[in-house]
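re: ur msg from earlier - yeah i can do the adenosine monophosphate complex, just paste it... oh wait u already did. ok heres what im feeding in:
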Amino acid sequence: MSFDSLGLSAVLLRAVAEQGYSKPTPVQAQAIPAILQGGDVMAAAQTGTGKTAGFTLPMLERLSQNRPEGGRRRVRALILTPTRELAAQVRDSVKTYGGKLPLKTAVIFGGVGMNPQIQTLRRGVDIVVATPGRLLDHMGQGTVDLSGVEMLVLDEADRMLDMGFIRDIRRVIAAVPKQRQTLMFSATFSKEIRQLAEGMLRNPTQIEVAARNTAAENVNQRVHPVSRGEKRALLSNLIQDGDWRQVLVFTRTKHGADRLARQLDQDGLSSAAIHGNKSQSARTKALAQFKQGRVRVLVATDIAARGLDIDQLPHVVNYELPNVPEDYVHRIGRTGRAGRGGEALSLVCVDEHKLLDGIHKLLKRPIDQHIVPGFEPDPSERPQPLFKKPAGRGAGGGRRPNGAPAGNRPQGGRRRGGRPGQSARQG
Ligand code: AMP
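and the outut:
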């Protein structure tokens, strides 16, 4: 199948060709015609499947076809994303594909000043890409008008729920017209996602490109069992021996990410950490340096890495396994993108065997294990708890179902029930 048969106009087909895409990915082949027809769409597709172009291209097509006559520009399409990085990337995609169309786009996220965003909105935009928290701030101040929204896109909806954005999403939905087209993209169709979709989408076309909760097939996955204290030496060794030029490494905590990046730097491997405690400009800079090849190792927490669009990322390492098995699938979705191969390695110590079991259950198969010579795990090592018990049941005392203390939630997320304006949120 070629892009020509999907119903996109010549301007957009040229933009696609300029990107060097020869044929649509499976999610694009299904989503583009469905969205062009005007119906609601619910698609299970993770990062790396080409989902962004899958909704951006038909959105641009529809917005440019049905342009309102005269008058002021108003927000006609709203795209919600869980993280700032993803919002910036979606905005970049909108610009890449729609650069030749007379449509204006604003990206709205927290961590940067409100005023430039207010100015942009005031000048008039057709498309807003936003994280929920900052969008609500603008709604509260009356600096954004969503009453003309024709298309609403929820990108990585499962992640937004994980991050506790459910109430924010509902508030946004209450502010956009009922008569609209709604598109929902999610890595998985969990029960919660289906519930959310029920209230939001009307008779959606359902698209599922990969079997639910299965990891990308073109990713070679391996577990390296190792002693707790040997992980860093093993990682340095793997990077140096394999002469890896670009590797994304996941840690469970922000603190752990900083520490590991520092230590790897000391080992002579240029590294940077990205997580929610870093300023927006620090995160953007680290990502840019990584993309340019000036930083060899990017150490990230789950939320910070979510949706990072890095082309041809060959290596992903789970320095620590994630608390939630689904995050494993998200993490390794960063490699083997859009048809290219990749390698996802997990360094697993005795403390993490339960987490590994959870991942095997989700994948419905065990991951191949390989002990690296010289890094044999110490058989006398006994498991230690991964999560410190919370001191009290006060602010941070709730526990997630998997046993992680609430205080260990991925950074940037707002706790369920959090009020707008609280500092913990990302958007
Ligand atoms: P996404 O899943 O939207 O994050 O996209 C993953 C990557 O695939 C991005 O780097 C896109 O530029 C790339 N991509 C999107 N569509 C195609 C296509 N039809 N052919 C090849 N690469 C694509």
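cool cool. The pocket of adenosine monophosphate is lined by residues 21, 24-25, 28, 47-53, 309, 311, 337-338 (CB under 6 Å). ping me if u need the other ligands too
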